[in-house]
Design brief:
This protein is of the alpha/beta class and 429 residues long. 44% of the residues lie in helices and 10% in strands. The chain is built from 15 helices and ten strands. A six-stranded mixed sheet has the order 5-4-3-6-8-7, with helices on both faces. It has a two-stranded antiparallel sheet with strand order 1-2. Strands 9-10 form a two-stranded antiparallel ribbon. Strand 1 and strand 2 form a beta hairpin. The longest helix is centred in the last third of the chain and has 21 residues. One of its GO terms (biological process) is protein urmylation.
Length: 429
């Protein structure tokens, strides 16, 4: 057998999916931890002494994340105050078993554990929701409830930063899903390693009523550049205890098709996963927002705006051209409505039937974002004003609408089957 390419002494046991290098077990775990540490330090994810909640589901990703963060926190002296935060959706035969794995990890790592349940926050478990609406569409309910439950759990713990176990495969799948659905504006959020989610701090009674203070919960993905296969390998060599069963209510969703495509691409060309992630990050910078400014990090937006466009060459780069073309398209369509349009001619063909040579760097390729139907029907193409965050009038959670999504879903559930133990709208909507 070939020797390890790192230490050159031990026998190579692993062919790394990410780098295609042959390494031994100890060198692989050390390299994996070093790469995660580099991601954390180069992106400045944590502040010294910061209190951080690890979204722990009991699966391989969150289990590896908790183990790596605990190891790196001790090794590098980050002085992070780590705590495990789990959401109990109330799915018998699935979540109850995975939470047992989380409890064992909490004891093994010496990290405190906080479990927040749907029943506690909303008055409904997912078993009850599925019994009410069926399996079709149940992931919509669970997704909305879970996002808000994480925020409320963080508020209960007094935590302003939640880390999740999303890996490179997950991000690549999301990029493909957004591309296939033509939803480019979502790329910025999907490919960002850090996002902020509005959250309401919960009072001592666990409900949103009474004195409520609002804050922004920072979310980050320390494993964003780690391959799923390497996460499994790390868990195997570290002998980590995790739960590997799929959710019993998970339907054949669109993400499954994207996952299959990603795995097929990885078999042909392993670099494809990170290439798709990087492509999604690059494309996210090209999509103009309502002010024709680039999306992405604030630092990038400021730099690019001062350069005269979405690019970095005084508006003459491809990114700048795309934003300019968006403006041109709106102007042309408005001119058509006003009857002031001008004829646009394509370059004439040469006598031999071939096109004249053109500078291809000046080609305008627009990125069209979705417009509201009302604006499209009325022929208006003005940018949609940015949404303003307010407070849900029912539960007090931060929302851009008068009633947040969770309360809307809960209202439908409660109307279909009135309950006497909770108010309409739920206690955690």
């Amino acid at each position: 057998m070939a020797p390890c390419e790192i230490c050159t002494t031990n026998r190579a046991q692993i062919l790394r999916p990410k780098t295609r290098s042959r390494v031994c077990g100890p060198c692989f775990t050390a390299a994996f931890e070093a790469e995660v540490a580099e991601t954390i330090t180069t992106t400045h994810l944590f502040q010294p002494g910061e209190r951080v909640a690890i979204g722990a589901s009991g699966g391989k990703d969150s289990t590896v994340l908790a183990s790596v963060l605990q190891t790196l926190n001790i090794r590098h002296g980050w002085k992070l105050d780590l705590v495990l935060l789990s959401i109990d959706e109330g799915i018998q035969g699935y979540r109850d078993h995975s939470l047992e794995a989380v409890k064992r990890n909490s004891a093994d790592l010496g990290l405190p554990l906080k479990i927040v349940s749907y029943e506690e926050l909303y008055g409904w478990s997912m078993d009850q929701v599925v019994a009410q609406i069926g399996k079709k569409g149940n992931c919509t309910y669970c997704g909305v409830f879970r996002r808000q439950a994480l925020d409320r759990g963080a508020a209960m713990l007094g935590v302003g930063h939640v880390v999740t176990g999303h890996n490179a495969d997950d991000v690549a799948e999301t990029v493909l899903m957004n591309l296939l659905r033509g939803d480019l504006p979502r790329l910025s959020r999907a490919t960002s390693i850090v996002t902020s989610t509005p959250s309401a701090s919960v009072n001592k009674d666990g409900g949103p009523n009474g004195a409520v203070s609002f804050t922004n919960v920072k979310r980050s993905k320390p494993l964003m550049y780690a391959y799923e296969k390497e996460i499994v390998l790390y868990a195997h060599h570290k002998k980590l205890d995790y739960f590997s069963t799929e959710c019993i209510y998970s339907p054949e969703a669109f993400r499954g098709s994207a996952r299959t495509l990603i795995k097929n691409l990885e078999r042909i060309r392993p670099e494809s996963i990170l290439d798709i992630v990087q492509s999604g990050m690059d494309m996210a910078k090209l999509v103009p927002d309502t002010d024709d400014a680039c999306k992405g990090s604030a630092e990038t937006a400021q730099t690019e705006e001062s350069a005269g466009g979405c690019g970095n060459a005084n508006g003459t780069s491809k990114e700048g051209e795309m934003a300019a073309m968006e403006r041109k398209l709106r102007e042309n369509e408005q001119a058509e409505q006003d009857g002031t349009e001008h004829e646009v001619r394509l370059p004439a063909k040469a006598a031999n039937g071939q096109r004249h040579d053109r500078d291809t760097t000046n080609l305008d390729i627009p990125i069209r974002t979705k417009e509201r139907r009302g604006n499209r029907k009325a022929g208006r193409h003005a940018a949609t004003p940015a949404q303003k965050l307010g407070q849900c009038e029912r539960c007090g959670y931060l929302s851009s609408q008068a009633v947040c999504k969770a309360c809307v879903l809960l209202e439908g559930l409660n109307k279909a089957r009135p309950r006497t133990d909770i108010e309409v709208g739920g206690s955690g909507g």
